Queue: 4 jobs
Job 1
Amino acid sequence: MSGMRDEQAGTENAADASWAASDEEQYRAVSAETESEELRKEVDGLRQALASHPVIDMARGIVMATAACTPEQAWQLLVDVSQHSNVKLREVARHIVDSVNGPPPPPAVRTALRAAIAALHGSTG
């Protein structure tokens, strides 16, 4: 009887080891997939940042010319407009650049832009 129990225990231990190995493989596969997805998202974000950088720089130049301010003030103005209008900064920049030869920015962006320019001039002079 003891031999049969030993054999049964050996079989159970082998099954447990097999399950543990299988669990470890599944964990590694899921971890690799999760890491891969995070890297994909990061790369997408970096690509989007690179694509929007020139538009943001153009908008910054437009703000500097129209609001008579420094590059740093223009950047802060764009950030403030983005926050107060609840519109992403790259979209605020796109609206400003598009408005040079096209339609004006949406009302929320225009209102925030006016307020930010007024605050800038109120604080500088």
Note: The chain has one domain: 2-124.
Job 2
Amino acid sequence: MNHASILGAVVVLGFTVSSSFALQCYVCNSKNDTDCGSPPSERHLKNCDDLHYENNENGESFKVCRLQVMQSPTHGPAYDRRCGWKKHNENRETCILTPDPHLKATNCECHTEGCNTAVWTQPSMAVFWVFIAIGLIASRRGS
């Protein structure tokens, strides 16, 4: 079996394993729970498919984790973490700053397990697989 076949099998296996489990995100709001700060308590890591959101009328599958951080000059930061079913940016994890002179809000979207812990997002699985491919190519050249 050549290295390309091995790489292909590893990639297919990785995507099969990662897609066979429901997405897990941190789900909490710091207005109601002080353990939702930064970082959130592990007890807030939830299986998104076990949750019900009233505005998800069609029962779409969960695809993203969301984090909203609201900075108030009088109350400090407030955190809202949840699961989401609509990607605002299909190809990358992203954060958007909402400019408001009275309340600054940063809205983040990420696509990997438990990635909504902080405003900066963790690398996606794609980055992981790129490093695997580079390692296999490098080992082949060294043979």
Note: DSSP finds two helices and seven strands in the chain.
Job 3
Amino acid sequence: MRVVQPSAAQLASAATMGVAAETSLPAGEIVAEIEAGRIRPEWSVVAVDESDAVVGRALWWGRDPAVPIALDVWDVQAQVRDRGVPLGNLGQGAASM
């Protein structure tokens, strides 16, 4: 598993990544925030598996186009083994933003 800054396509995939509804923003809200420019690839990191599928995400949000202000989404798919490892890696990647 790798943690990377996402391409636009990976960010779109991260927006619709399957996670429990009670643990995250709804996919439609994340997509709307991306379309509005309030969640951006350069402010985000994603965890990808061996097949380059997005399995985790740390998405920063901001109104100012230059600076994000809040870590809005930070989660990993439920089927990922040892979920704490990718969450920690996502947190380290997000902290370097």
Note: The first helix runs from residue 8 to 15.
Job 4
Amino acid sequence: MHIHETADHVSVHLTSCAPQDAATVIAALESVFAAPAAPPPRTPEHPTTPHPTPAPTVWCLTVDTAAPAAAAAEPAALSGPVVADLYGAAHPVQQVAQHLSGAFNARQQPTISGEHEIQVRLTLSPAPPVAD
């Protein structure tokens, strides 16, 4: 099933991280941005066969920035760094990058621009503890 994407949609790809860290980043995004209607994730009918060397995993989601929640980003715990590649129109991508920067320490690498879309790569790391 194909999701009809609009200019408000940002494609987010998470790599180089543990599954629980990907889940933490996804939860941080879902707390502010809606996900477009999509079918539920499918599980494989057969268990995966272990590979002699671990294969890289990419977690992908699309967020809709048209109506973000008013809540501010809450710092979230990560066990290690997460690479987040954001793809979409400039303003929505910057909205998502700003939210992730509020929830995690984020280092932005150079942006790649296209005619109508940009790509931003963020390296997310655990946010420092909030001083009381």
Note: The radius of gyration is 15 Å.
